[in-house]
Amino acid sequence: MLLTTLSFPMLALAAVFLGEGDAGGLEGVKTPAKGRVEIQGRASNVSSVGLGLRYKKVVFVKAKVYVGQLFLSEPSTFKKTKAEALGSLAQSKVAVMQMHFLRNVDAPTVQEAFRDSFKENKIALEQEAIQKFLTAVKAGGPAVEGKALTVIGEKIGARELVTYEGTDGKPVTIEGGEGFRKEIFALWLGEPTDSGVENLQEGLLK
């Protein structure tokens, strides 16, 4: 069902990410080596290219937040350097970031962390597609220990789609303009907001 204007549609639909194999795991989380994405009849195979730990420093304690894992449909094109990683995603038709949470985090806090990252990367928050993404994050339910939040970016010709699946089990797909997918994945591969995101990024690029 179409929920927004034709320029930036947001769709509630069935999306599936099924992982298989073993990428080694981290912090007790079993991480798949590859997976299959199915969204509205479109199917793609993706492979893991990296994983890392995102922590949040609270006073003197590093609170472990989630294990992030990046999957790509064309993994051989991924450049594992800070300068090239984000740009190299353009070579993959499908990119997936799965966040396996190690603690409970409420939805507004997840949304605020993403908002701060957009600001750090000089991404305009007033863009309609970015606003729709942040709304989906807040509406998608809290991050729950032992469960995953999934973000899927697709490039289909000139179209750029991002699907957010929260713990409510109701994935939402948003269509944005040129560069939209890159802006979303800057959350993990762009300029880090703190040492915890930097640690995650280092793991993804290892």
Fold topology:
Elements: E1 10-12, E2 15-20, E3 34-39, E4 42-58, E5 61-72, H1 85-88, E6 94-101, H2 107-120, H3 128-139, E7 148-156, E8 159-165, E9 172-176, H4 180-189, H5 195-204
Keywords:
alpha+beta, Chalcone isomerase, nine-stranded antiparallel beta sheet, 5 helices
Overview of the molecule:
- This protein is an alpha+beta fold.
- It has a single domain (about 10-205), classed as Chalcone isomerase (3-Layer(bba) Sandwich), CATH 3.50.70.10.
- Helix content is about 25%, strand content about 35%.
- It is built from five helices and nine strands, in the order βββββαβααβββαα.
- It has a nine-stranded antiparallel sheet with strand order 1-9-8-7-6-5-4-3-2.
- Helix 2 packs antiparallel against helix 3.
- Mean pLDDT is about 90; it is low at about 1-10.
